[in-house]
Amino acid sequence: MIEDILSPLPWSQIEKYKALPANRWGANVEFFTGDLPDMENVHIAIIGVKEDRGAVDNEGCFDAAGAIREQLYNLVTHHQSLKIWDFGNIEKGSELTDTYFGVSSVLNQLLKGKAVPIIIGGSHDITAAQFKGYSSFERDVNLTVIDERVDLEEMDGQFSDQNHLSKIITGNPPFLGNLNLLGYQSHFSDLKSLETLDKLGFECMRFGTVRKEMEEVEPLVRESDMLSFDISAIRASDAPAMKGATPNGFSGEEACQICRYAGLSDRLSSIGIYNFNPVFDRNDQTAQLIAQMIWYFTDGFYSRKDDKLTLTEKDFYRYIVHLDEGHHDLHFWKSRKSDRWWLEVSVPQLGKKKNKPMLVPCSYNDYKIASAGELPERWIKAQLKAAAV
Questions:
Q1: What is the DSSP string of 147-189?
Q2: At what angle are helices 364-371 and 377-388 packed, to 10 degrees?
Q3: CA distance 4 to 6
Q4: 131: Cβ–Cβ under 8 A, 6 or more apart, which residues?
């Protein structure tokens, strides 16, 4: 029972948040005090994780959740009738694996109840436990990671926040459908690790590319089930609160934009924000930024359009682009509700001659590339993946 894993916030703290002005988050959030609520009344579930034994040279990130709550619950809400619950914290287990088990168990039950968990606190290796929370899903799980480096380092058998992606890639179950690594910086990233991800057909985008083409992040996040955000990907001037903070990285505004994309995604069902260490924060700057990232994720969540991928012109506009080279006709679909774009790909069906159409999230830029007479790289990758199934 996850009630035995979760540690409620002290009542004095809950009373303080509930006494805030009526338009503040704290006054509108419900708090877990020992009994689980009816999950139909939970849209978003906030969970702190008090664990840092997987952190490499960043001890202290176990204490992140409290600092984030102090900033988050003082923000103004623009949405009526919020159904957000704070489920308290998952305490440090006797062993690191005990904490992983606690995180994955809590997430699994919340996901079954259709709640969207937001994990705050802990080191980036908690991502593997977040992923494990999808173990009961009978389909592949897609993951987007925002990080300044590729966490596939060799650590002599020690599992940490610098090699946890290896556990996710080789894990069974759940099965990793797709992995997007966004924001890595070349001077921190091993070429062999990048080549490994590329050979597996995963998407890796350098920080400079992401920053220049931020709108290309949205289709990748839209197709993901979960987002893992390492604050090391944010520049130290905006997020100083980790021992290894570096001068280059995303701005606070860009971090909030990525989180809003995640909130808008009809498919994405959990987000974790990791490696924040209050010991190194300045004037609560990083805690404030993470609170705002959560605010924008939630704003996106309550703005979801629930696009149903029906392949009918009742719900979508259809655009057909004729390409002379190769005699390809590309079919693009644009939602009438959200103005988002999808690209049609043919998927082989076992034992059948006729392929099945599948929609892959894309951007308006992909349509412009096709209209200029070129095959979009997104279509090529999607077609290769479909053929390999």
A1: -SS-S----TT---TTTHHHHHHH-SSSPEEEEEEEEE-GGGS
A2: 100
A3: 6
A4: 141, 143, 168, 171, 174, 176, 226
48-90 pLDDT, tens digit per residue, is 999 999 888 888 999 999 999 999 999 999 987 789 999 999 9
Q: What is the pLDDT of residues 131-164, one digit of tens each?
A: 999 998 888 999 999 999 998 876 666 678 788 8
The answer to whether the CB of 217 falls within 8 A of the CB of 234 is no
In single-letter form, the type of residue at position 79 comes to: H
Containing 285, the helix (H) or strand (E) segment is helix 285-301
In the beta sheet, which residues pair with residue 208? none
pLDDT digits (tens, 9 = 90+) for 90-123: 999 999 999 999 999 999 999 999 999 999 999 9
Q: What is the pLDDT of residues 270-307, one digit of tens each?
A: 999 999 999 999 999 999 999 999 999 999 999 999 88
Q: Does residue 93 contact residue 105 with C-beta atoms inside 8 Å?
A: no
Dihedral sign, Cα of residue 190, residue 196, residue 199, residue 200: negative
Record the tokens describing residue 216, joined without a space: 């290309």
Question: What is the phi/psi pair of residue 20, to 5°?
Answer: -70, 160
Count CB atoms within 10 A of the CB of residue 99: 26
Exposed (0-12), middle (13-18) or buried (19+): which is 203, by Cβ within 10 Å? middle
Closest CA relative to residue 229, chosen from 133, 141, 119 = 119
Structure tokens at 347: 């998927």
Residue type, 346: S
Q: Are strands 356-362 and 341-347 parallel, antiparallel or unpaired?
A: antiparallel
